[in-house]
Write a structure and sequence with these properties.
alpha/beta, Alpha-Beta Plaits, 14 strands, 4-stranded antiparallel beta sheet, elongated
Amino acid sequence: MTPVVKIENLVKRYKEIIALDHFGLEINEGEIFGLLGPNGSGKTTTINCLLSLLEYDKGTIELFGKQMKPNSYDIKKNIGVIMQNVAVFDALTVRENIDYFCGLYISDKALKKQYVDEAIRFVGLEDFEKFYPKKLSGGLLRRLNIACGIAHKPKLIILDEPTVAVDPQSRNKILEGILELNKNGATIIYTSHYMEEVEQLCTRICIMDKGKSIATGTKEQLKKMIKNTETIEIEAADISESALEELKALPHAYEVSYNGEKLLIRFSGGKHNLIRTLEYLKENEIVFGRVYSELPTLNDVFLEITGKALRDNG
């Protein structure tokens, strides 16, 4: 199968800064592919190079099996782009905005009207067709932005932080729409800082940092790359230093902490960590309250792989 997106050995420099350092990526047809990374990791640069909006120093980019160039209009008509910053015309109504962007790709008037009608229904803006953007809430504005990007029915859709600063109802509507677009045949590149969304939506994920791909796989594969496999948190009012040392000696335990109220134990491997921990507490007559056992999340993977230090915006 020919990948929808194939990036090889991509290098992009800004003077002394290397934004992309021999970056590579393949995305197959029908995937919802998560592109993650801290601020400044190279995600936006990758997307801009992918769209031929930015010249790069080295490497190749192929979309749908063809080399992507600035004048590759036959390829670009099959791409829909919804960037983080809403890009619509304030002087046009909801319908007029969608009609304009759809018209960039669809010249047949009857077909264009059909596509615009379908896009309006798809994002649930039927009651707002005659509204101007400044009259829309943040969530409705995001949905208009999405409608403008997908009205021409592209085969590849790039969604950059589509749910930033929207209410829960609009977020749910957007996420449902993304799944529906994928079900209807679109391949999707999805970037977000909301790890739970990525975990919910994406079939595969690439974590970028410092212009490189540092981990790629399904969420299950990524979770196997980190040390932590289970975190147990227990409410307990009195645990002695000797008990903490013995808990540290439990099979597969690699980190134990206690703040006087909560006991936290991290494990790497093992199938019966919770049972062993509770048995120890009972045998030593240690009184405890609520018990929580958590498997690693995509957020845990992201933080362990990229580090927990704050990053500058960019």
